[in-house]
Amino acid sequence: MKSVPKLKQLASDHADQGLVLIGIHSTERSDTLEEFVKKHGITYPVAVDVGRATTTRFGVDSFPDYYLIDRHGKLRFADLANDEIERAVKLLLAEPPPLAEVLRDVGAKAQRRDQRILAVWGNEAQQKEAAPGLKGDRDFAQFLRYEYQVVNLDAEEHAELAQQHGVDRSAALVAMTADGRVLGRLDARVNDHAAVKAFLETHQVPMKDAEALWTAALAQAERENKRVLVHLGAPW
Amino acid sequence: MNISARMVAVTALLIAPAAAQSDDFAREGKDRELKDRLEGQLSPALHANRWMNTDGKDLELSSLHGKVVLIDFWGTW
User: Fold this and answer.
1) Which residues of chain A have pLDDT under 70?
2) CATH code, A101-203
3) What per-residue confidence (pLDDT) applies to A1?
4) Closest by CA position to A67, among listed B52, B17, B6, B69
5) Amino acid B3: pLDDT
6) In this complex, which of B36, B44, B64 lies closest to A20 when CB atoms are compared?
7) Interchain proximity A19–B38, CB inside 8 Å
8) What distance in Å separates the CA atoms of residue B61 and residue B38, rounded to the nearest whole number?
9) Is the Cβ–Cβ distance between A170 and A140 less than 8 Å?
10) Residue-level pLDDT at A84
């Protein structure tokens, strides 16, 4: 039996790649479960399945049974052999998440940090070819980090989105707002750093004039009979 | 896609056997009828009488899209 410590180790080793471990305790009575969970230091989610409805629905016929679900919610392995768990987990972790999830995460980050999104379109070979365009000095690296959330996309895998972005099968850069509105596209000279830098500077979030912001806030506060809370911050 | 390629694709779909596993991973379980049918489909939902270690919230598989979920079924008959 794959012991709980080994499973916990696997879960923590791969948590940042998106592995989630769930226990389902099948029972007729749930009174001793608290002790069991505490004794084994189980901190991951545990479902108590009194009466075995879920256990039966999954076709479980002995304990323990291991099931693996991929990033698209598909059940890929039902009752996997103990020794295969790690290999199967690694296989599924290597698969990319659904595009919607990727864009949602990237969009949420860009929203929070007041950034744009940069989609770097191209297959693996094209991504390598385009890489020099995004390589610059330290100031540029900082600028890119502050101003953009970068996501790499393959037009063959995401044909519909590629079409929306006006991208065909060649390498391209697309700048978008945090909520996904396309601002501009660069399809020629994507490996030309000067061209890329100019493109990114054109589409970055405009610098806000501190004084103008302050004056506007004061005026609005006066109209609405409120205070102004000043948050001094930086992108890092 | 040209006509002949499309025809080949359709033909392949019609004659492919309903094999559940086309990978090289070992499975367990004496009775695999239901398990093999479930594999490759969207996972059944999880229903629990209660959840532990979730701050009292019900956990739904649909909220875990994008993640890889390893489920450990255990208990006593």
Assistant:
1) 1-2, 30, 233-236
2) 3.40.30.10
3) 38
4) B69
5) 58
6) B64
7) no
8) 15
9) no
10) 94
This model of the complex carries an ipTM of 0.76
- For residues A121 and A189, is the Cβ–Cβ distance under 8 A? no
Is A25 in Cβ contact with B70 (below 8 Å)?
Answer: no
| pLDDT at res. A168 | 86
- Cβ of A49 and B51 within 8 Å? no
Q: What's the pLDDT at B2?
A: 59
| Residue A124 neighbours by CB under 8 Å, 6+ apart | A154
Asked whether residue B6 carries a pLDDT value surpassing 60, the answer given is: no
pLDDT bucket at B14, cuts 50 / 70 / 90: very low
Alpha carbon dihedral A81, A84, A89, A95, in 10-degree steps, equals -110
Predicted local distance difference test score (pLDDT) of residue A164? 87
With contact defined as beta carbons under 8 Å apart, do A149 and A110 qualify?
yes
Domain ranges of chain A: 3-93, 101-203
CATH number for A3-93: choose from 3.40.30.10, 3.40.50.12280, 3.90.550.10, 3.30.1540.20.
3.40.30.10
Residues of A in Cβ contact (< 8 Å) with B25: 77, 80-81, 84, 87-88
Distances (CA, A) of A89 to A38, A69, B50, B75: 26, 9, 27, 23
Q: Backbone phi, then psi, for B50, in 5-degree steps? A: -155, 165
Are both A3-93 and A101-203 of the same fold?
yes
